[in-house]
Amino acid sequence: MLPHILAEPLFLQIWVFWLIVINTACIFFLRQVEARWVLVAWVGNILFMTALFELNGFNRLLSLSHVVSWTPLVIYLHRRRDSLSGERLFDGWVRTLFVTNLISLAIDYVEIVRYLLGDRG
Known about the structure:
The protein is mainly α. The chain has one domain (2-116). Helix content is 74%, strand content 0%.
């Protein structure tokens, strides 16, 4: 899958790299329950996206892995926003992750609709 990502425009490569960095950063906060749920969602996303890629190749349908993994995650994080630890670094990471994944989901839902409407690119 990496060669396909590297063939994309630079802004998209940077976005994908940012998604990897911000989601993988959960490993630094595993003593917090929210970070453990991020890890579960992140690993699930990776496994599901890999399976989708193997079955269907590199197309808009890959967005389904974010929709399935991150929709429940951002809902959970939104509900937990008032219960964060009070640690600036952790809270800042959670908020940044939340906004990042929410932006990604907005894009991903559009990609899924486009796929369903016949744009398989």
